[in-house]
Amino acid sequence: MHLKKIIFSFSTCVISTILLFLSYPTPVFAETSMQDSYQHLSSARAEQIEWHYRTYKGKKQKRLWSITYEKWLTKWLPA
After folding, report:
1. What does each of the 79 residues of the chain score in pLDDT, given as a tens digit?
2. How far apart are alpha carbons 39 and 3 in whole angstroms?
């Protein structure tokens, strides 16, 4: 009878230890190759702009154009 109590308490201890390790959170890491490809896709880029010039009523003027967004960024300014 005493042997049965020892075996029961030992098995209870082993099962408790296994359950404790199964519930312990472990860190998970993504593959490095996937991180590199996503980093390349999400990199920020500078807006591309260019000045356009004209002569209006004998005076030179300039205006800033956004190549990236395809819109004017300024009104006509004296050049």
Report:
1. 566 666 767 778 778 777 777 776 777 776 666 555 555 566 678 889 999 999 999 999 999 999 999 999 999 999 8
2. 62
